Amino acid sequence: MGAFDKVFGLALILAGVTIAVYYTLWVIHSIPCVCKHFGDLPVFLDPVWLFILPSMALIGGVSFIWFFISSTNKKIALAKAQAAAKVAQEKKGM
Question: What keyword terms does UniProt attach to this protein (predicted)?
Answer without folding.
Answer: Endoplasmic reticulum, Membrane, Transmembrane, Transmembrane helix
